[in-house]
Amino acid sequence: MKLARFRPAGGEIAELGVLRGEALDAFVPFSGLGAALPGGEAPKDLRVCLAWSSAERKAVAEAARTAEAHPLSEGTLLAPLKPEKCLAIGLNYKAHAEEFGGTVAPCPTVFTKQVSCITGPFAPIHRPRVSEALDYEGEMVLVIGKRCRHVPEARALEVVGAYCVGNDVSVRDWQLQTPQFTMGKSFDTHGPIGPYLTTADEINDPQALNLQTWVNGELRQESSTALMIFSCAQLIAHLSTAFTLEPGDMIFTGTPAGIGHAMKPPAYLKVGDRVRVAVEGLGEIENVVVAEPETTALPFPAA
Asked: Nearest-CA neighbor of 79 among 140, 19, 168, 3?
């Protein structure tokens, strides 16, 4: 099932629902599915849908086949949800660790992306006014579906609710100012996700998905999640040792080799550049780089 958040053209309110059709070109709002929904009412947050049973998903999908729908061309897909925690893994592909000048670590390199960086799958990315070192990182993102702690690796995929595509946009000079990556990974708009949530039952093996990133049509990254150093299951087991994972929490699982920072000379993103990231079975996102608008400079009151 493809869970989505959609704003019809000219509308101000986003709707929640599912995509249908082979081309996934129609959006069916939950508001029109009535009794077919668990509990008989439309959920107000997609994280609720992550806990639906297979029978409940089947009933919703069946009702969506004939329900009134919006053509995707007549609106915009938005970020499916805003997580309470947005976690990310650094240097999780050997070739990327090497191009970044590092070595394979004995345990995952974990950092956070502040949730205010989350943006839509086709929304613009801001080139910060404080840096020229803007870079891309195409990634598979996993979404937790069940509240959990101390999850054994052998059962870790049971707590995954969905997967999606992400771009761990990075401001390299700010990232490398200190050993902590958070500042350089959390600028506003630097966490595009989507284009929808693919429920975990549709992905037989998250460690067997092709991943590609293009910049202005040039293929920059091409790899497979099979080459992750730490698998999704290992990441969940490791993270849940320290803290509780909640439904909707997101984990950016790392990027393969091919980043702009590692090119000679570095090929950082410029205003007007278009970045597209695709993950097999999860769809693709595409974001254009724009100058950080003056409207982000919120007025600060005089002393």
From this structure: 3
Question: Distance between CA atoms of 55 and 7, rounded to whole angstroms?
Answer: 28
Is pTM, for the whole model, over 0.70? yes
Give the separation between CA 41 and CA 38, rounded to whole angstroms: 7
Distance from CA of residue 286 to its chain's centroid?
12
**Mind listing the domains of the chain with CATH numbers?**
2-77 (no CATH), 86-293 (3.90.850.10)
Residue-by-residue pLDDT tens, the chain, 303 positions: 999 999 999 888 899 999 999 999 999 999 999 999 999 999 999 999 999 999 999 999 999 999 999 999 999 999 999 999 999 999 999 999 888 877 788 999 999 999 999 999 999 999 999 999 999 999 999 999 999 999 999 999 999 999 999 999 999 999 999 999 999 999 999 999 999 999 999 999 999 999 999 999 999 999 999 999 999 999 999 999 999 999 999 999 999 999 999 999 999 999 999 999 999 999 999 999 999 998 876 666 655
Angle at 121 between CA 115 and CA 123, to 5 degrees: 85
| Whole-number Å distance between alpha carbons of 78 and 58 | 24
